[in-house]
Design brief:
Elements (H helix, E strand, L loop, with lengths): L12 H41 L1 E2 L9 H4 L3 E7 L5 E7 L7 E5 L3 E2 L5 H9 L3 E5 L13 H19 L5 E5 L1 H12 L4 E5 L5 H8 L5 H4 L6 H4 L7 E6 L7 H10 L4 E6 L14 H21 L2
Parallel strand pairs: 1-5, 4-6, 4-7, 7-8, 8-9, 9-10
Antiparallel strand pairs: 2-3, 3-6
Helix pairs in contact: 4-5
Pfam family, one: Hydrolase_4
GO molecular function: hydrolase activity
Protein name: Alpha/beta hydrolase
C-alpha cells in the first residue's frame, strides 16, 4: 500500500445487513428442502398405501388338512360381480345350525384362521373362511371396493348354496369394516368383531399426524358411520394389549351400534384376540354370545 494512503473503510452497516440476509436465505433454503421432503412423503404414502394397508399372503389354500376335513371343511369357489373366481374353505352347517362367515384381517390368508374357527364347525355351525381377491393365489388386487364385492359374493353363495339368507358375520381387524358394511346392506343374524376400528382413516390420521392422511386415503373403511344403521346383535372383543388398534376403537364401535351391543376387553391379549389368546377367553366370550343368541332366537320362535 502506498505510503500515506488509508485503507478503504467498509460502511459499518454492511455487516449487519449481510448477516440477516444470509440467515434469511438459509432459512428459506431449509424450508424449501423441508417442503420438498414433505411432498415426497405425501407422494410416497399416496402411491404405496395399498402396500401399507393390505399385506396379502400369496400361498394358495391348497388341500384341506385332515383335521378340518373331519369337521366338514371343503374347498369351494365363488364368482364376484366383476368377474373374479375366488377360492375359499367352508364347512356346511349341521341341520338347524346357523352359519358363521369370517372376513379376516389384512395379513396372512384364510387358512391361518382355520384353527380358531374349527371348534365352531365341530359344534355344528356352518363356517365360511372367506378369502379376498389378491390373497391365497386368488386373482385381483386388494382394495376396499374389491373387498366389499368379494363379501357380497360370499353372502350370495351362502344364501344360494345353504339357503342361509341371514348368517352371523365375523370380522377380524380390517375385516371388521367389511362385516359391518355387509350388516348395513342386508339382514344378518348377528355380528362378531375381533379388534375392530372406527375407521382406517382414523388409524391413518393417528399414525401419520404430519400428513393429510384422511385426504390421501383411498380406502377409508368407515365403520363408525355404518353402525347406527346396524340393528343386529353385536359382540366386540378387543385385546387390552393390542399394539395396532387401540381398544378405545372397539369401545366406540360397540357404543355406536344401532342394536344391542356388548364390549369385552381382554387383559394382556394382543392383536387379534382369537389368534393370540392361548387361554381361550376370547373364544369363550364368542361361545357365550352364540349361546345367548340361540336362546333368544328360540324364545322368539316360541320353542
Amino acid at each position: 500500500m502506498p505510503a500515506g494512503r488509508r485503507p478503504a473503510r467498509v460502511p459499518s452497516d454492511a455487516f449487519s445487513a449481510l448477516g440477516p440476509r444470509s440467515l434469511l436465505d438459509g432459512m428459506l433454503a431449509l424450508a424449501l428442502v423441508a417442503a420438498v421432503l414433505w411432498l415426497c412423503a405425501v407422494a410416497a404414502v399416496w402411491g404405496r398405501q395399498e402396500k401399507l394397508i393390505f399385506r396379502p399372503d400369496a400361498r394358495p389354500l391348497g388341500e384341506i388338512p385332515a383335521e378340518l376335513a373331519a369337521v366338514r371343511f371343503r374347498r369351494a369357489r365363488v364368482w364376484t360381480r366383476d368377474g373374479l373366481e375366488l377360492a375359499f374353505w367352508a364347512a356346511e352347517p349341521l341341520l338347524g345350525m346357523p352359519t358363521l362367515v369370517l372376513f379376516h384381517g389384512n395379513a396372512g390368508n384364510a387358512a391361518d384362521r382355520a384353527p380358531a374357527l374349527a371348534p365352531f364347525a365341530a359344534a355344528g355351525y356352518g363356517v365360511v373362511l372367506a378369502e379376498y381377491r389378491g390373497y391365497a393365489g386368488n386373482p385381483g388386487c386388494p382394495s376396499e371396493t374389491g373387498f366389499l364385492r368379494d363379501a357380497r359374493a360370499y353372502l350370495g353363495w351362502v344364501a344360494s348354496t345353504w339357503q342361509e339368507p341371514s348368517p352371523i358375520l365375523c370380522g377380524e381387524s380390517i375385516g371388521s369394516g367389511v362385516a359391518v358394511r355387509m350388516a348395513m346392506e342386508q339382514s344378518v343374524r348377528a355380528i362378531m368383531l375381533d379388534a375392530p376400528y372406527t375407521s382406517v382413516a382414523d388409524l391413518a390420521a393417528a399414525m401419520y399426524r404430519w400428513l393429510p392422511a384422511r385426504a390421501l386415503l383411498r380406502h377409508p373403511f368407515d365403520t363408525l358411520s355404518c353402525l347406527p344403521l346396524v340393528r343386529a346383535p353385536l359382540l366386540v372383543v378387543h385385546g387390552e394389549a393390542d399394539p395396532l388398534i387401540p381398544p378405545e376403537h372397539g369401545r366406540r364401535v360397540a357404543a355406536a351400534a344401532g342394536g344391542p351391543a356388548e364390549f369385552v376387553l381382554l387383559p394382556g391379549i394382543g392383536h387379534p384376540v382369537l389368534g393370540n389368546d392361548p387361554a381361550g377367553h376370547g373364544a369363550a366370550a364368542v361361545r357365550s354370545f352364540l349361546t345367548r343368541l340361540a336362546r333368544a332366537t328360540d324364545a322368539a320362535a316360541g320353542t
